[in-house]
Please model this.
Amino acid sequence: MTSSPEKNMTLLRTAYRAVESGDLDSAERMLTEDFIAHVPGSPVPLVGRDVWRLGTQAMKEAFPDLRIDVRDIFGVGDKVTVLVHFEGTHQGAFQQIEPTGRRVGFGSIEVYRIQGDKIAEEWVAPDMISLMGQISPAAGH
Model:
């Protein structure tokens, strides 16, 4: 059974809203059991909902007021591509950088593969250089 691009885009918007509100349980249920994540810096794809949960939870703990702005979204077949912008306040440790209290914003280009009515795979390219520059100790000087 194939999903329509419109239904797939709605699924992604719903998942982003769940993450933004902190309802990681609901967002996690939108993933297939064998969810695959392709992330920068990892030589191999990461597999499993638990991997997604750890990464997302780390972001929400570091930026509890995280806001997710879908700037553009389009779907073709079983794929959805999203241009997204994240904003939040650095209130928890993130990648060994202690909280700075700074407001940050960074973009990401994300592609998802939908299988049935669940998210099966993601390719994400967040602008981590921008984010880390905003929270680095040197940025406060």
About this structure: The helical segments are 5-21, 24-29, 49-62, 128-135. The chain has four helices and six strands.
